[in-house]
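$ run holo --ligand "NAP" --emit tokens
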Amino acid sequence: MSKGQKTAFVTGITGQDGSYLAEFLLSKNYRVYGLLRRNSLPSFGNVAHLRHELDFLFGDLADPACLSMYISKLQPDEIYNLGSQSHVHESWAQPIATADQTGLGALRIYEAVRNVSPKSKVYQASTSELFGETKISPQNEDTPICPANPYAAAKALAHFDAQVYRKSFDLFISTGILFNHESPRRSPDFVTRKISLAVAALKLGLKGSRIPLGQSGRPVISGGKLELGNLDAKRDWGFAGDYVEAMWLILQHDHPDDFVVATGEVHTVSELCETAFSVVGLDWKKHVVVDKEWIRPTETGPLVGDYSKIKKTLGWQPKVKFQELIEMMVRSDLARLS
Ligand code: NAP
Ligand code: GDP
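-- output --
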């Protein structure tokens, strides 16, 4: 390690955000250690292209022993806790695993920091889902937290404990309350990527086993149709590459705090469809049908964030706009599938 080089320990390194954050930290000359779940075959997810530049440590957020051992050995300058069962829909099917990985996983990190590396700064990946069915719009750091699904409930535990540990033990634990952020690396479980994959598959006329798989391992189009849930749901969609810079800035601040990270712009799922299909000149209404299976037991939002605190305090603001983001995703899937 070169003199003065900072170290970061990142959980969730193989995920969408982990990959952009790893690229960002490497560009700033950090030594980056990533927690990697052991699979029967080597699997590096979104960081396969960085596998020679990163240091991987096998482990799991379910295991406090390994977290404590790594944090004690590394004494990292910064810890980014991005690891999570991150999908709302799936959290109804796996509520206990979600609570364990997403809620208790964070607490295990805080406990390890408290006990073996109290100088490490921690970034916790909080979420706009914390605001649930709020009637307040836009949401900011003072909006009441009222989770409406098991994922959000687990994230609420992690969020509140970040504040409790910060105050009780004088630890540098900060949270970023991130609104939805997407990219070509987004899992096809999420609506933006499901749509961009479906648009590309329809445009290219893919059939049978050439159709990519989406949510629950099902093809993203079936009988030439894209099946979606609530088309009226409203979200604030930004670009993941912009949001990892916010995570880093949050840890460079002079004290630990909570920050909303968002674009401040709201769109419906219908508008998302219209934008994505228009990139390839197709009419979304001819291809999209509603399937009750994707309608959730409770819906959150409209979720739209007020990012004025982070803009004023840390100078962060989003760069990529909605139209540009969706075009980027559709064009990337067209290139990938053709
Ligand atoms: P993602 O692509 O689903 O990645 C999740 C990561 O967590 C993967 O690397 C996964 O590893 C890892 N993971 C899951 N369970 C684990 C466990 N038990 N032990 C260790 N690692 C585990 O999620 P993302 O979009 O990058 O999001 C990053 C974080 O931000 C998550 O905490 C998410 O909940 C939160 N967040 C995301 C958004 C968003 O819009 N993207 C918004 C707000 C908050 P495997 O590869 O082994 O599965
Ligand atoms: P979330 O905001 O973290 O739950 O991100 P998602 O991308 O999973 O969902 C965003 C919104 O799209 C939610 O309000 C969903 O109800 C809505 N939605 C509509 N159809 C679908 C679908 O087929 N899949 C997913 N994942 N979400 C859908």
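-- notes --
The chain has a mean pLDDT of 96.
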